[in-house]
Automatic annotation (TrEMBL):
It is an enzyme of class 1 (oxidoreductase). PANTHER family: ALCOHOL DEHYDROGENASE 1-RELATED, VACUOLAR PROTEIN SORTING-ASSOCIATED PROTEIN 11. Belongs to the zinc-containing alcohol dehydrogenase family. Residues 8-339 form the Enoyl reductase (ER) domain. The keyword Metal-binding applies. The keyword Zinc applies. Gene3D superfamilies: Medium-chain alcohol dehydrogenases, catalytic domain, NAD(P)-binding Rossmann-like Domain. This is alcohol dehydrogenase.
Amino acid sequence: MKAVRFFGHKDVRVVNDIERPVPKGDEVLLKIGGAGVCHSDLHIIDEGTVVGTVFTLGHENAGWIEEIGENVEGYKKGDAVLVYGPWGCGHCKPCQQSKENYCDHQSEQAYGGGLGLDGGMADYMLVPSSRLLVPIYDLDPVIAAPLTDAALTPYSAIKRSLPKLMADEYVVVIGVGGLGHVALQILREISGAEIIACDVTEDKLAFAKELGAAYVINSKDADAAEQIQKITGIKKAKVVLDFVGATSTIDLGTKVVSLDGDLTIVGLGGGHYQYSMNGLPFGVSMTNPYWGSRTELMEVVGLARQKKIHIEIEKHKLDEANEVYDRMRQGKIKGRAVLIP
Ligand code: NAD
Ligand code: ZN
Ligand code: ZN
C-alpha cells in the first residue's frame, strides 16, 4: 500500500511498498478516508521533535473499518470512525478517565500513530485497540478527520477556561490556522465572550471575522498589544489562547491577559518565557495543554453533527504531501489540508 513516510530530518517520501497490516486481538484495520495535515508534523519534520524512527505520518485520522481482530466487539466492517490520537497505556488513572493525552506513561512510549508509530497518511492504518475509536455515524470521514486534533485540541483548551468566558469578557485567539479557525467557532458556539483574533495576514484576519471574531488585529503590528487593550479597556482579556507559541506571541499574551485570567499556550512554536513577578498580572494561570480526552472527542463529534463547527478543508492526494507541507510552512493553507488516499 501507499504511505507518506518520515525518514528523518526534512526527509518525507511517498512510498508504495508498505505491507497492509493484519489486525490481531483487539486491533482494528482502518481504510483511511482522510488524514489531516497538522503543523506539529512540521515540528517533527523540520525540528526533530520525534527522532530515531521511520514511520508513516498522519495523526488526524478517520476512515471506515476494514477488518477487526478476533477480540474486537461492537464494531463491524464499514463503520465510520475517528482515531483518537494520543495513545496511552489504557490502564493508568488518566487513561481510565479517557484522558490518554495525559497518560502516566507518556514519557516511556511513542505519542501515537503518526507521532513515532505508523499513522494515517496511507491507504490503511492499524489501530492498536478498538478503545481508540470514536464513531462518527453520518459524518464523512474525509471531512471529519481534523476533528481529532484541529477541533479536539482547541475544544479541550477552551473547556478548561469556560467558567471565565462570560458575555462581559474578552478572549484573544492568536493564530487562525488549522486549530485557530476551529477555536473561533467553538468559542462562538459554547462561550459568551467577545472574540479578538490575531494573525499575520489580511486574508487570515478576514477569515477570522467570518468565523465569529468581533475584532481582528495583525499581531505583526508593533503596537498590537495596545490595539487589543484599546478594545478591552482596563479589564483586559480574561482568556488568551495562543495557537502559535512563539516568543513574540507569548509576550503579546502576557501583555493583554487580565488579572486572574488564563494564558493558554497551545502552539509548539518553540517560544521562551522568563517568569518575573511584575511580568504577569496576579492570579494568571499559564498552561500548555496537550490535545484532549476521548470523551471530549465525542463532544466535538456532537458539535460537528449539529453543524455548529465546520472545518474548512483543502483536499489533496497522498502524493502531494510534500507540496502541502511546503504550503503550510509558508502559512498558505486556509483551514486544514486533508490527504485522501
Ligand atoms: P497552522 O499552520 O495551520 O496555523 C498557524 C497559524 O498561525 C497560521 O494562520 C499563521 O499565519 C499564524 N501565525 C504564524 N505566526 C503568527 C504570529 N506571530 N502571530 C499570529 N499568528 C501567527 O498550524 P496548526 O496546525 O493550527 O497548529 C498551530 C500550533 O499548534 C502548532 O505549533 C502545532 O504544532 C500546535 N499544536 C499543538 C497541539 C497541542 O496539543 N498542544 C495540538 C496540535 C497542534
Ligand atoms: Zn496535531
Ligand atoms: Zn495510561
